[in-house]
């Protein structure tokens, strides 16, 4: 999509709040230096954030010979944000303060046979009610609820267009949720959630061009380009898991053959193990998480089969990441999600070696490859950040007499 | 790279001039409607362009009931731009007026054994002198010279970092050229030149997200994202030719195996033909152009071998383009450069079918695949546009008392 001056103002607002959250307390002068924005622009944006109650004045610091500088800090209690991670087997909901600290969490299992949209929505509604009650926040302080659902999402329409695991097609998820949840609602998918989490709070912060590689059951890449999330013309950018790595290779559920996901998604890793050692005790045929954990434990114990599987997986993964490096020339590639988290440093080391074998010298030299430093569930954190971004975006739009186009549901809290 | 407010002002200046070139004569009101910018912003930018002499006032049109609206048009004779296409076997230089019409052209053959930087620079200098003399423009009217050189380029430093065909490493090309050429000089590579040509004058105009696939001896993708060219952190984005399509496939000169380029670059197409029919009369072993032209003629005549080679090539190409569609979700994919131009519609039809077999439904539905509509050498046109962009960028920077960072050489014309 083309960028407008309104987009750049919203992006600047994000950038200033991001910087305040990262370095509270801070001065307008420090914010100008850190963001590259003019002091006048920073002063305007800080004024808006103060008016919203998202930040507060917290005193002054001496400046050598000049007037004392006013300090601002994030107002943690100035609002609450809720992040919803709808996954294949569970719904996780977390409630955050404005410093994005988790105040409450609720998990609901989604059992096989419970995957109809109404059933999933009931789980989400129950968990959202639970976190609000646990945290004891007034409903009026909840700025919004961000929801992550796997697959392809019509963000503006609030529709889960295609969720492969459940074969959902064109489910009007936000309308269904709005029947139970009275806060502003924002929908997107886990790729975007993880990208936003890294951009605001993780390894992509301060970088213009970054790729957040999501390694879970499904696989994809959240793209941060030009300092913002690249969504593409129909919000489906980032489907790196469905790029061809091995022409005519393994059959993928998308219908194509040889997709990256079929080699490095959790089921692909299980297949890598099965092809190497069909009766390995590391293999838990019906349990991806147990298998990946057994591989991680095996690597730690020096098990040769586990080492070989991680090396084989890293070979595929490195070739696929080298494609991203050559094509996009990012400053940083972040490995995120549960498979990356379980396999950790041993996977990272092998991936770095494999990328170095496949990538061109110049973009390789410009790129760091790191594990996500986000300590909590990045999908919940990113989903909550959708709500924060929504609240910041609606500042400008309220001023222009418009309603946030991505927020669904009543914006007034329940009475 | 992160975008700044200065970047957005420069991008707006580009957008307004682009629109004026496309639809002269036009009014400020029409420009505001076409670009989405405010009338005040358009009026400011039009004022700058008038002051630069790039556009002129050309009268008024009636507006129903209101004041007559002033019309502006591009001032074709307001300046000249030179584009240089340095290729493996030739140097082509074209001189354009400000409407980007070609006024003069000079070609120089680069014979084997003439590939030292000083030799290539001498060819460029001779051809630049020739086009200025042919067109009879005053040196003072030449706004700049854009130079395209294959491979990886340090744009700001004016350095050809790696040109694979000639094994150039870190050649300070703009400094060498500045010894002979007294106009402001701008360097980049053919991927960027073709992307800029499509963005200003071709199928990417008016689109936020577009991919320009370059099919020649080398292969790559110029990326237009968020309305501007995506260059990456070290100006090496777009190396799609060196993404893996067939893991452990054909050996590529980059050292990797199975790169897209080894299947769909001109030498890869020759190999597709040789593998199918080693003694085919279509094959001109030492001449890529003659072979691709023979294939095009063969397809037109219904030759089954030619048809099969184009279909095989399109199968690889379609899988690789589907990767771009799934990853970037662009509005348009443009096939550019000489191989695309020679193989034309028959290749396009097969590519569309192949992309449809490989891409995901949602991004596929949002994407058009087209042949480049640019009627002249897109590399020369794009290179000349580098000079136009440089002149527009230096407006803001002159105002801020700075010199265009990418322009090399004396900015005063020769006496």
From TrEMBL, chains A, B:
Leader sequence segment: none
PROSITE patterns cross-referenced by the UniProt entry: ROK (PS01125)
One family name in Pfam for this protein: ROK
SUPFAM superfamilies: Actin-like ATPase domain, Winged helix' DNA-binding domain
Domain of life: Bacteria
Parts forming coiled coils: none
InterPro entries the UniProt entry points to: ATPase_NBD (IPR043129), ROK (IPR000600), ROK_cs (IPR049874), WH-like_DNA-bd_sf (IPR036388), WH_DNA-bd_sf (IPR036390)
Membership in a protein family: Belongs to the ROK (NagC/XylR) family.
Official protein name in the record: ROK family transcriptional regulator
């Amino acid at each position: 999509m083309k960028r407008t001056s309104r987009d750049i103002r919203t992006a600047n607002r994000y950038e200033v709040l991001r910087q305040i959250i990262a370095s509270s307390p801070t001065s307008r002068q420090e914010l100008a230096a850190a963001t590259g924005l003019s002091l006048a622009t920073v002063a305007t944006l800080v004024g808006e954030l103060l008016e919203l109650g998202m930040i507060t004045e917290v005193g002054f610091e001496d400046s050598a010979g000049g007037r004392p500088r006013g300090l601002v800090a994030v107002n943690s209690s100035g609002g609450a944000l809720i992040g919803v991670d709808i996954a294949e087997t569970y719904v996780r909901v977390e409630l955050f303060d404005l410093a994005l600290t988790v105040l409450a969490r609720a998990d609901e299992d989604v059992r096989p046979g419970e995957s109809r949209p109404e059933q999933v929505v009931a789980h989400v509604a129950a968990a959202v009610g639970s976190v609000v009650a646990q945290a004891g926040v007034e409903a009026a302080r909840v700025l919004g609820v961000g929801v992550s659902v796997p697959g392809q999402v019509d963000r503006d329409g609030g529709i889960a267009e295609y969720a492969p695991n459940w074969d959902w097609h064109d489910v009007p998820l936000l309308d269904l949720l709005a029947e139970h949840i009275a806060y502003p609602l924002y929908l997107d998918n886990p790729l975007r959630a993880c990208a936003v989490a890294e951009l605001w709070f993780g390894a992509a912060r301060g970088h213009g061009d970054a790729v957040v590689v999501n390694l879970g059951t499904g696989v994809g890449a959240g793209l941060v380009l030009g300092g913002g999330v690249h969504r593409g013309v129909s919000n489906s950018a980032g489907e790196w898991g469905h790029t061809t790595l091995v022409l005519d290779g393994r059959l993928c559920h998308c219908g194509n053959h040889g997709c990256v996901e079929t080699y490095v998604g959790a089921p692909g890793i299980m297949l890598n193990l099965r092809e190497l050692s069909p009766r390995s005790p590391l293999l838990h045929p019906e349990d991806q998480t147990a298998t990946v954990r057994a591989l991680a434990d095996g690597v730690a114990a020096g098990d040769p089969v586990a080492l070989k599987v991680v090396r084989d997986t890293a070979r595929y993964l490195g070739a696929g990441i080298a494609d991203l490096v050559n094509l996009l020339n990012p400053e940083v590639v972040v490995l995120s999600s549960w498979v990356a988290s379980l396999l950790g440093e041993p996977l990272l080391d092998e991936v770095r070696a494999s990328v170095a074998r496949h990538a061109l010298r110049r973009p390789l030299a410009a790129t760091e490859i790191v594990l996500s430093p986000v300590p909590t569930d990045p999908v919940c954190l990113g989903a909550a950040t959708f709500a924060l971004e929504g609240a910041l975006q609606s500042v400008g739009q309220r001023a222009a007499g418009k309603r946030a186009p991505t927020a669904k549901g009543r914006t007034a809290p329940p009475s």
